[in-house]
Write a structure and sequence with these properties.
Layout (H helix, E strand, L loop, with lengths): L13 H13 L6 H8 L4 H13 L1 H5 L2 H10 L2 H215 L4 H29 L4
Helix pairs in contact: 1-2, 1-3, 2-3, 6-7
GO molecular function: DNA binding
Keywords: Coiled coil, DNA-binding
InterPro entries: KfrA_DNA-bd_N
Length: about 325
């Protein structure tokens, strides 16, 4: 009986499991799940176990032992056969448990070994990285040392150049200092001569200033006397101006009084003129009325006399008030 070859989800086929079990059996080993997996180099226990059970179920038929087994079953009592089957089932169960435990232990050992291997690889990688970093640091330090050496060499050359320049500068400064000293000596001599000339000039200026001061004091005395004379003249002029002002003030008051009298006379004249004009108008009106209405002449004359009297009184009062309101100059 040939095994079927269904494709399992993990890629393990039943034919592979059966072939591995046949090979183990031919080598004189009992096919177990772990041995089959080790022989194939792959596969999980959950996948290999049902395929191996199927292999065991067909093993008798494949070996031609089914008829012999049936004869043995017929010759053995039923109780013994059931007991043997029970023992076989228990043995198979214990064997399966032992195989599972061994497989679990093996997987744990493999996982532990793999973890140790990974840890060792990580340590090696870390060590390699550290060595690489140390190498890079040493390369950088070496490069920095070379750069510093070149920089120090360059700076040494520059310092030597600066030292030579400073020596030249010191020599030049010494020469300039000597020249400066000679120049200062010449300046001192010239300054001494100038001080002597300045002293003589100062003495001359002091004498000239003393003469000028005396002349200025004399001029100041004369100016003071002239100021006193001017003050006296100004006081006399002020007294004369005050007297003249009083005289003009008296004349002004007299002129104002005469002007008021003239205004009063003018007011009286205006009053008389107004009264005369009113009288003329009344006479004209009376003549006209007599010419047109002779009957009412007497009544009109009486009324006209009263009106004239009232008009004269009002005109006199108005002219008097007007004269009083006239401004005085």
């Amino acid at each position: 009986m040939q095994p079927t070859a269904p494709k399992t989800p993990r890629g393990i086929q039943e034919a592979d499991v059966w072939a591995a079990a046949d090979a183990l059996l031919a080598e004189g080993h009992k096919p177990t799940i772990e041995k089959v997996r080790l022989h194939m180099g792959r596969g999980s226990p959950n996948t290999v176990a049902p395929m191996l059970d199927a292999w065991f179920s067909t093993l008798g038929a494949r070996l031609g032992l089914n008829q012999h087994t049936q004869d043995l079953r017929n010759s053995v009592p039923t109780e013994v056969l059931e007991a043997a089957q029970g023992l076989w089932s228990v043995a198979l169960q214990h064997a399966q448990q032992a195989a599972d435990q061994a497989l679990t232990d093996r997987e744990a050992e493999l996982q532990h070994s793999q973890a140790q291997l990974q840890a060792q690889e990580a340590r090696l990688a870390q060590r390699e990285e550290g060595l690489q970093q140390q190498k890079e640091a040493m390369d950088a330090a070496l490069k920095l040392a070379h750069a510093q050496r070149e920089d120090l060499s360059r700076r040494l050359d520059e310092m030597q150049q600066q030292l030579q320049e400073r020596h030249a500068l010191v020599e030049r400064l010494r020469q300039e200092n000597a020249d400066q000293r000679k120049h200062q000596e010449a300046l001192r001599e010239q300054q001494a001569q100038e001080l002597q000339v300045a002293s003589q000039e100062r003495q001359r200026l002091a004498e000239q200033f003393a003469g000028n001061e005396r002349r200025m004091l004399a001029d100041l005395d004369r100016s003071r006397q002239e100021v006193e004379k001017s003050k006296k003249s100004l006081q006399d002029a002020e007294r004369k101006a005050e007297a003249r002002y009083e005289e003009l003030q008296a004349r002004y008051l007299h002129s104002e009084e005469e002007l008021l009298n003239a205004r009063a006379a003018n007011v009286q004249l205006q009053q008389s003129t107004a009264v005369a004009q009113e009288r003329v108008q009344e006479l004209k009106a009376l003549l006209e009325m007599r010419a047109t209405q002779p009957v009412a002449a007497a009544a009109v004359d009486s009324q006209a006399d009263k009106q004239r009297t009232n008009n004269r009184s009002l005109q006199r009062r108005a002219l008097s008030q007007r004269a009083l309101r006239l401004p005085r100059k």
